[in-house]
Fold:
Amino acid sequence: MIERMLLVPNGLKIPKRGFTQAEFELRTARAQRIMQRNGFDALLLTAPANVRYFTGFDSQFWESPTRPWFIIVPLEGAPIAVIPEIGAPEMALTWLKDIRTWPAPVPEDDGLSLLTSTIRGIPRKFGKIGAEIGREMALRMPVSEFLSFREGLGSAIEDGSPCIWEIRMVKTAAEIDHIHYICQIASDAYEALPSLISAGESERDVVRKLRIDIARRGADATPFMPAISGPGGVAQIVCGPHDRALEDGDILFIDTGSTFDGYFCDFDRNYAVGRVADEVHRVHEALWLATEAGIAAVVPGATTDDVWWAMSRIIEAAGAIVNNVGRRGHGLGLQLTEPPSHRLGDGTRIVENMVLTIEPGMEYAPGKMIVHEENIAVTKEGSRLLTRRAPRELPVIR
Amino acid sequence: MIERMLLVPNGLKIPKRGFTQAEFELRTARAQRIMQRNGFDALLLTAPANVRYFTGFDSQFWESPTRPWFIIVPLEGAPIAVIPEIGAPEMALTWLKDIRTWPAPVPEDDGLSLLTSTIRGIPRKFGKIGAEIGREMALRMPVSEFLSFREGLGSAIEDGSPCIWEIRMVKTAAEIDHIHYICQIASDAYEALPSLISAGESERDVVRKLRIDIARRGADATPFMPAISGPGGVAQIVCGPHDRALEDGDILFIDTGSTFDGYFCDFDRNYAVGRVADEVHRVHEALWLATEAGIAAVVPGATTDDVWWAMSRIIEAAGAIVNNVGRRGHGLGLQLTEPPSHRLGDGTRIVENMVLTIEPGMEYAPGKMIVHEENIAVTKEGSRLLTRRAPRELPVIR
Structure:
């Protein structure tokens, strides 16, 4: 039965995996213009998504914290890899030509002297290197080793995160195709879900079935899938599944960050289990309309604050008592969440080819939260839906 | 067809999810003895595995880099949580009583002033806090924010990683039960695999089927599954799957780190596609014997170097030209790889209740590598196999 499992979204072509050398050259050239403006001689990258963005290199080995991996993006020319020997054969398949290795793990000097000499060999124009030390980034290496490396380098190391996010925040057409594809796979699976599950099953059962179904439909992985249920709404949206069984009157909330070729979707769906209270339908409708308003507010030139406001008005009028999510959507790409945030004070100017989530939510009574979410790409005129729009009426699980 | 998918390993009871309060108290008391010896007033934790180890708290939200989460383990009493509001309802379900929150994300002060005041409220005996800044750890927060927090704190922050690894390296009986269970699930799936796949299918097809099968058998997730094929051996073991189709004469190498309730297995299996060269059988047998020798070398009191040597002798006699993996096994638990490493110079003394991988590998000809792997728990007398031992003869895919 597993043999015939692979389904493909209706009428959609599977995007070609990986990206052309021209695409990586384009990404790098754009990065270098932004680096020039920020006065960086190079960017030093350690995190999986940043490494993948510039090289196309992926590894299952990110799960192991033992070895650090380094990519250097200089102000001119192609990126340079400074990596454990174990990764060299695969890195050689990317567009990178300059690949330097050491026989990791070597706790006494796990690549740091090689990294230092490599960076010293890069032309100095500004005397400043950008690293992943700021907002929404974490350095994938021991901080103590980073600090002693920084001390010995001789160039200043400053926060490259705003620069890296400026680069990654605007997607290429090929990136958007990838995200669209995984959004369609998850849309199909969400639509099919009521035929796979029934009241009485546990949240954990639901997740297992949906994970399997999304894999059958061609997703590579499902790193994120909270499924939470509760009478008329849920108490939180980021932990679970638990063993709780679905009961009549419940809202079942499921969110997923599944991936295709490294790119995430990130959107949720809500289901009514049997017959839910009338109030739930009213709140659901308000959030459906808030989502419409959020989508409509996304136009090049608007800010993330504008998008927040567009949703807020409707949510507050509907009687929200609190929104502890702290924002109403965010960027999306090689990571489940990326900058910017639709949040008061975020102030990011929206530009063409950003990919964003629109995520209004509200707690309408204590412990009863409902959250909607869609994914969109910003176009010249406004936005294009990457997900298939959630049904206006709650789908029912019997 | 998905409805009847859940299989359970033969005769094995599903371990109870989560752990008792007594277990968390025991972990914390042991940690505090080790902290006392190392002169730490508290441990500051940000990484998912460390947070989960002390609290039982898990979140799908680790995928989002937007918000930092903090757990403080003081020298006396229970851990304290300093976390985003969005996580409070779930943290309240753990054994922790002292949970402090802020309305994250707030880029101007994302929990740092709350963290500072919380740590300042902890009794000072040594004037030193341990943080995850050393080997095989990465701080899950922006380094620039960590540095300014450190500057303002008034207590020294030093490397707590050796202390944290000493705590986590020795498992409780309940932890070993968890790892044993996921090892058995993966063992079943590996044994069933030849009946699910055939020559001509791609590495990617194989991974999809095996991922689905492992999910059906009760694993929660499969964060790690490289599958690599090549004539008589593979060029590397950490990247892939690719679109390469399995051909007669190939070795198909598959490794998996799947999880049950947060705990990983980490072991591989090799398959012959059709008829492989005689030499492959000879190398396979040498590695099978090296694994036996590695397992036999694990006794309390031996060192990781001893385990390395026990395998090396056999591998070298078999004609290894290189081993670019850099070690021959490692610790295993809440992460795919943990200290110690079976590596010359590692020098870790093996003690009862460690969980270890035994992982001899060799490149016997350029680009032709074969690697074996099993998972064991250390007992009073020696070791107990958690995986079902790999067959001595290569299973064949037709």
User: Anything to note?
Assistant: DSSP finds ten helices and 19 strands in chain A. Chain A touches chain B through 80 residues (CB under 8 Å). The two ends of chain A are 26 Å apart (CA to CA). Chain A has a mean pLDDT of 95.
